[in-house]
Amino acid sequence: MSDEPVYVTQPYLPPLEEFVPYLEQIWQSKVLTNGGPMHQQLEKELCDYLGVEHIALFNNGTIALLTALQSLRVTGEVITTPYSFVATGHSLLWNGIKPVFVDIDAKTLNLDPAKIEAAITPQTTAIMPVHCYGHPCDVDAIKKIADTYNIKIIYDAAHAFGVKDDGGSVLRHGDLSVVSFHATKVFNTFEGGAIICPDLKTKQQINHLKNFGFVDEITVVAPGINGKMSEINASFGLLQLKYIDSIIAARKAVDEFYRSELKGIFGIKVVEESGQTTANYSYFPILVESGYPLSRDQLYLKLKDHNIFARRYFFPLISEFPMYRSMPSAKDANLPVAKGISLRVLCLPIYPNITISELSRVVSIIKGEK
Ligand code: T4K
User: Model-level pTM?
Assistant: First the structure.
């Protein structure tokens, strides 16, 4: 009998019977969406949990990114990283904005602040960095550049739920930060996302934008979109939030297991956490270096042969997809670090309910014992 499949991630699902009372409440109220009681309660509880002032919930992280750009009226060119999920770049294209790719830092794998200034032109109106794998960007250096050139910062913080630095939640940085609550994320609402807003006025404006631009029954102030989170999604978030500390603790244990087991394997480099005081262990990226007996893709395929579905996040680079690759900033010569990392990276399975025997299977394949 072959081994059970092990995926790069699996959502944590609380006991089904605990979800039933939420559904009963929704059935009773008949309020299914449009900012109902579950939605309002989740916004409140997330503010408390994350330690931020204002959150606007969305139906997914991508629509939240689109709306964040709309709300700041970003146009022209935006500096961003090629080393991310394709939604980062797509949110710019959907707004008619030209992405300008800047290389990443070899240690943090985030946008390299030292390379940003050279990419700024009179058309640049914003920077969109990503806290990749939940590892914080160099927020101080990025803010200094944005202040100097009077441009905005929108953090794609899709991976950074619950991550903190010395001053608190990393989600407080930038003009706006956007998180994803997709099923594959540390905290999920099946599909979902949010914009973290600095003040109530901004949140209200974003609330209008996510509801077609309506401010009352007959007044539409902007060409808004439908970005609303439904009551089912919000209620699942409320239930999930009860378990979030144990979810993150279980992820931490997986992270520690891998770090101790993979130590000293020639040619395998574990990507270090950097800059956070509280991590969320959202991904477990390793780099398959030249000293390892297999290439990254050979190891990926070998794991797959054993029913272990590691993922090459992020390969190809965003800049390599057809709608980006003819842009001058997309050239490999402009992005040598990102290119190199994307050819070596492999994200290993990490999620709360992964078992020790599954983890041991992963490790023994990497060690060449299988
Ligand atoms: N910005 C960044 C930096 C992002 O990483 C993302 C999303 C976004 C923006 C956009 O946010 P959203 O609009 O998605 O809220 C997955 C996710 O779909 C995507 O949300 C995520 N980033 C990206 C990094 O990963 P895929 O295409 O790799 O997902 P998929 O379906 O192959 O799932 C991976 C594995 O997870 C599966 O092999 C099994 C497991 N899985 C998946 C789903 C959907 C489950 O066990 N249950 C599930 O329901 O993109």
Answer: 0.98
